[in-house]
Amino acid sequence: MNTTYRIMRTIIIIFALFSCGYLNAQWVWVGGTPGRLSDWMEPRNWNLNRVPDEGSSVRIPQLNQPFYPEIKESVPSIAHLEVAGGAELHVLTNGLLQIDGQDTYDAGILLIGKIYIHGLIAVLNTAQSEIAGNEGNLITYTDGGQLSFSPSY
């Protein structure tokens, strides 16, 4: 009975630790997958080998290669986006990125690098400001690129 109890307790602890790590996981852009070098929707371009989804905290670091993410279509909503110094994000003409911070206590975007918008980024439900960091690095082109905000809570 004592051995069974210890085994069950160990399994529960391992499961709890794994769950916490999974729920707090951060998606980090690695890019460079052959044939899809900059494609946001390519799972192998992310450290977790999965495309970021609802509730994801996404980080785009400065890389030693030129393959920064491009959003060409509507992608799954994320909770938070960080673009590090020297890094870039490109939202192309038909691209849509929604950042819904409803379950976080962060700003929607932490911007130190650059974001080029030809499509749309929508930031909603942030606990802090929609954009923290250097808003001057956000470049919205006149060919229809948009950045929209909804009221923060």
- Order of helix and strand elements from N to C terminus: HEEEEEEEEEEEE
Low-confidence stretches: 16-23
Estimated radius of gyration: 18 Å
Total beta strands: 12
Name the descriptors:
globular, alpha/beta, single chain, 1 helix, five-stranded parallel sheet, 12 strands, 14% helix, 153 residues
Q: Care to describe what's here?
A:
14% of the residues lie in helices and 29% in strands. The chain has one helix and twelve strands. The longest helix has 22 residues, at 2-23. It is globular.
Could you give a short description of this structure?
This protein is an alpha/beta fold. The protein has one helix at 2-23, and strands at residues 26-28, 57-60, 70-71, 80-83, 88-91, 96-100, 109-111, 114-117, 120-124, 131-133, 138-140, 146-149. The chain is globular.
Topology (elements, then pairings):
Layout lengths: L1 H22 L2 E3 L28 E4 L9 E2 L8 E4 L4 E4 L4 E5 L8 E3 L2 E4 L2 E5 L6 E3 L4 E3 L5 E4 L4
Parallel strand pairs: 1-2, 2-4, 3-5, 4-7, 5-8, 6-9, 7-10, 8-11, 9-12
